[in-house]
Each structure stands twice: as structure tokens, then as C-alpha cells.
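Hi there, hope your week has been kind to you so far. Do you reckon you could talk me through the fold, stretch by stretch? Thanks so much in advance, here it is.
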Amino acid sequence: MVLLVKVAEKIERKIKRMPEGTTFKYQQLDIEAKEYGAATKAIERLIGKGIIKRVTTGVFYKPKQSVFGELRPSETEIIKPYLFEQGKRNAYITGTALYNNLGLTTQVPKTVKIASRSKRIYISSGSIKAKPVKSYVDVTEENYYLLEILDVLKDFTKIPDLNKKGGILFLQNKLRSITDKEINRLIN
């Protein structure tokens, strides 16, 4: 019983510090293996109180209140926990969703593509659907933005309703903003 109270208090403190609209998994709560059972009970109680909501199995969010009522997190925020494992990035959004986020297209895909070398990520949560795409290198916090640039280069002629001049300007600006070391990594 004492363990349950300690774990519940630890989880509640951690969640109170999170901004509204933030999604999270158990891993972000710094739960030890022996605390897992107590943590699941604490999470269920917080869901019952309405302090947090469940997106899907093992993924939760702290609801954001507006004048119109409770808001669900953005699509990007819902997908974010799937891009990390144990606090380290191992995947990134690619395809039309990436090109839309970068402002290269106005098209919004029905299904988001998530690239990862280490795992296949499928998401089906309400209107959000995601499917895996193979990455040929390990995805890290240090290289995912370079992989995004490579994806834009690879799919340049396939990006829906892309303004070619605007796309070239975008790539020029991106390439000018990275260091020589990063350009060498990009080439490799």
C-alpha cells in the first residue's frame, strides 16, 4: 500500500508539471519495473478523475481546456510518443505529412508515414492512422532532420502540388543553415 501511494504521488507530480495537451507513455514517468503494477492503478485513477485521458493502449495525454471545452492533442503530439523509445528518438515522420509540416504542400494525408530502422510503427487512434516506412540508417536526435532533407530531395518530383521554385528555395535555405560537418553527414 505504501508503494502504491509513493508511486501515485510521484506520477501525479510528474503529470502536474507537464503542459496541457502533452502526450506521454509510461516510460516518460520514470517508473521502475517493480512499480509498474502500482503505476497502472495510479494511471487508471487519474483517468477516472479526468486528470488525464487515454489516446490508445499505453499512451495518455493531459487534456487542454479551452472556452469551447476540452481539446484533444494535435496529431503531431499524439504521434510524438511513438517516435521515441526510452527517451531516445528512433523514428521520424516522413512522406506527405512531413512535406505538409515543412510547408511544401497543402495536401494532408489520411495516413502518416513513420520511418524507423529498429521497429515497425502502426497507429490507429480515432482519425489518426500511421504506417511504417523503412529507414536504412538508425534514426537519432542528431540526424533525423538530415533524413528529412534527404526525403525531400528523394521525393522532390513526387511531392503533391509542390511549387518547384519554392521547393528549390526551401532546400537552398536548409542547406545553407547546416554546418559543413552536417553536409558531409548528409552526403554519406
In short: The mean pLDDT is 88. The chain is about 40% helix and 20% strand. The first helix runs from residue 2 to 17. The longest strand covers residues 128-134.
